Amino acid sequence: MLSAIWETEGLQTVGIVVLVFASIKLLHILGLISFSEDSVEDELELSAVRHRPEGLEQLEAQTRFSRKELQILYRGFKNECPSGVVNEDTFKDIYAQFFPQGDASTYAHFLFNAFDTDHNGSLSFEDFVMGLSILLRGTVQEKLIWAFNLYDINKDGYITKEEMLDIMKAIYDMMGKCTYPVLKEETPRQHVEVFFQKMDKNKDGVVTIDEFIDCCQNDENIMRSMHLFENVL
Amino acid sequence: MATGVAAWLPFARAAAIGWMPVATCPMPVAPRDNSKKQDELIILNVSGRRFQTWRTTLDRYPDTLLGSSEKDFFYNEDTKEYFFDRDPDAFRSILNFYRTGKLHYPRHECISAYDEELTFFGIIPEIIGDCCYEEYKDRKRENLERLQDDQEENKDLKLPNLNFRETMWRAFENPHTSTLALVFYYVTGFFIAISVITNVVETVPCSSTTNQKDMPCGERYTVAFFCIDTACVMIFTVEYLLRLFAAPSRYRFMRSVMSIIDVVAILPYYIGLVMTDNEDVSGAFVTLRVFRVFRIFKFSRHSQGLRILGYTLKSCASELGFLLFSLTMAIIIFATVMFYAEKGSSSTKFTSIPASFWYTIVTMTTLGYGDMVPKTIAGKIFGSICSLSGVLVIALPVPVIVSNFSRIYHQNQRADKRRAQKKTRLARIKIAKSGSSNAFLQSKHNGLLNELLELTGSEEDEQKLIKSTSLLESQHHHLLHCLEKTTVRTPLCFALNSQNSSAHEFVDEQVYEQNCLKTALQTYPSHSPSIASHDSPAVSCCCTSGKKNTPLPNASLSPANPVPSHRGPPQELSALHIQASDPMSQISSRSNLNLRTNESNRVNCKSGRITTAIISLPTPPALTPDADGLHGPPQRRPPPPLGPSIQTTTSSAGTNIVKVSAL
Known about the structure:
heterodimer; A: mainly alpha; Recoverin, domain 1; two-stranded antiparallel sheet; 12 helices; B: Potassium Channel Kv1.1, Chain A; Four Helix Bundle (Hemerythrin (Met), subunit A); Helix Hairpins; K_chnl_volt-dep_Kv (chain B); signal (chain B)
C-alpha cells in the first residue's frame, strides 16, 4: 500500500522535474534565455576599418592645395579620426561642436552626403580634400554646382520645394531655440517661398541647375558672399 | 569653444558656402588673418627632456599657460626653446592633452604632485577624461580625508583659552587629555560592566536553603541587586547630565545616538521607581527591564572597534537591505512551494504558508532544527533546493559588508599609525628647523668672533672659524640681523642684558623658556643649583637618579638650568614617553672637557629609555643658547653645555623627548 503511494508520488515528482528542465532547454534553444555573457560581446564586433590616402603627389595633382596645406589638413583630419575614415556619426559630432546652441545633425547629414561622392557611407581623406578644394579654391561655377548638389537631396538634378524645405529646416535647426526674434513655425516655409520666387524662373515648381546658376550669378549678394570664403586656409 | 576640433574649422567655414544661395541678406565680412605665419615646431624643454609640437597644437587651448603668451616668460633666447623646470613625466600627460584633447591621469603619479602640475600649466582638473576621472576623484578624496585627519589632530593641541565647559567636553571626548578624564572614563566603563553583569546574574537561579524550589538570585537578594542597580544608575545619570551640560550644542547632543542609548539605559529604573508594585503594570515593568540591556551599548564609547562595526553597518545599509529583500522574496517563494507540495500528505506540520515560513527560514540559513520536515518526495526535493539557494543568497552580500568593514577598519588603523608617527616626524623636523635657526645664532658669534680675533690679531683662528656659509645663508642672516636691530627691547625677560644693545634678539627656545620660567618661578627659593633630583612628582624623566643641575661657576649668569625635561606646568598626558638622546653632544663640544663629573650623569640620562610618564613637555634640542650672547670673550668656557655660553661648535646637545601616545 505504502509502496503504491510512493510509486505514484515518485512518478509525479520525476514528471515535474523533467517538465521543468525541458521547458528551460526549449527557451534556451529559442534564444530567449542565454546562459553566458559571451553572447553579448559577440554582437559588438569591432570592424577595424583603416584607410590610407593616396600619396601626397597624387592629391596635390588632383586638388588645388599646396603640399603644405595638404599636410596641415591631413594632420587635423587624422587627429580627429585616427582610423582614416569618418563615418556619419563622427561627422555629426564634429560638426555639432561648432554649433553648440542648436541641433546641427540634420544639416550635417546633408553635408555628409554632399561630401561623400562615392556614397559608401564613410568619408575618406580624399573625399574630404576634394570637396574642400572645390569650396575653397574652385571657380564660382564649381562652387555653385557644389551648392546645388548639396540642396538636391536625392541627386536627381532638380530641387523641389520639399527638398528645399528640408534644407531650410535643417539650417534653422542649427540656430536653436534661443534666437531673437523668436523663430516661428512658418519661417522656413516662408524662406523657401522667397527662394523659389527668386530661383524658379519658369515656375514649374522645381529649380534646375541652370536656373540656379544663372540666378546666383546675377545676384550681387551671393557673388560677394562667395568670395568671402577664399582665404579660409 | 570647439577647441578640440579646431583643425576642422576651415572645413566648417568652407561648408558655409552652402548657406550662401539661401541667404536673403549679404554675409558679414570675414576676419582677416594678418598674423599668418607658417605652422612651426616649438621645442619645449622640460628638465632636459625635449618635447616638440606644432604651435597650432598648443594654440588650441588659449587659456592655459602653453597656449597663451605666458609661455614667453619661459623662452630661452640662447637655445631658442621654452624651458620649464618641472617634472617631465607629468608633463607627458599635459602635452597629450593638447594633442588629443583628453586629459588622462596616470595612476602611478601622486595626486598632489599631479594637481600642482595642472595648476602650474593652467589646466583645470575637471576636464580629465571619463576613463580616468573616477580614479582621480577617489585619490583626491582619500588625500583630503588624510589632511582633514591631520587638521583634527592639530585642533586637539589648541590649548589655551578654553573655559570650563569646553574643557569638560574635551575631557569627555578625549579621555587622554587629563588625569581626571581618564579616571572618569575608567570608572564609567567599570560601572557599565558591573551593571551588565548584575543584569545577567540576576536571572541565574540560586539555590536557597529554606525553599526547595530554585528562585533567581534577583528575587533572593533583592536589596543587594537594588543597591547595585541604584548606584549604577546614579553614575549614569550624573554622567549624562554632565555631558549634557558640557555639550557645545545641547540640541545636537540630545539627538545623537549615544545620548539616546544613555537615556534608554537609565529610564527603566526611574519608571520602575515611579510605578511601584502595581499588579497590572508589573508585566509592562518586566518588559521595560529588557531595555536595561542597552547599557551594553554604552561600551561603544570605550571601544573603537565597536564604533567601527556600527559605522560599517550603517554604511552598508544598502547591501543589508538588499540581503533582507532577497531573503524575503526567497522565503515567500519557497514557503508557498513547500506548502503546496506538502498539502497532500497527512498530519503535516505545513498547515499554512505562514507556518511554512519558519521551515524556510530555518532551512535557508542552514540551521535545520528539525521540528518541521517535509514528508513527500516533492517536498524533499524543493526543500533541498531551498537550502542550497539559501546558502547562495546569504553568501552574496556578505563579502561586500566584509570588504567595507575591512576598508574602514584599516583606515582607522592607518589614522592611528599616522598619529603616532607624526610625533616622531614632527620632532625630527623640529630638529632640522632649529638647526637652521641656530645656524643664525652661530654665525652671529662667528661674526663677533671675527671681530674679536681681529682685535687679538690671530689669523689662523679666523680662517678656521669662518665657515663657508653660502651667499644665501649670509643674506638670510643679514636679514634676521636687520630685524633684530629694528625692534626695541622691553625689559621683561632679558634682565641680564643690560650691556647689550637695545634690540630684541633671536634666542634659542630653551633659553627663552628658561628665562620665562625664571620670571615665573621667582618666588621659589628652592630653585638653586643642585644635583639632587627635583622632587616634583610630575617630572619623571629618567634622570631621577642624577638630575642635572650643574652649578655655574659664574654667578652673574642665570642660575640653575633645569634639565631639558622642563618643569613646565603639566600640559599633556601621554602614555609613553620616549627619551632619545643625541650622543654627539658630549664629545664635540669643547666645553665639556671640563665637566667630566657631569658627563657620567648625563650619560645615564641619555640612554634611550622608555618610561611611562605623566607629563612631558617637548624641549628642543639645544645648541647652546645665547641669551646674553654678545658679551664675553671666547675663553669663558667652563659653563656646562646647556648653560648660556658661547660655543663655536655646532653640535646639538640636547635630549629629544618624543611623545608617543597610544590608547
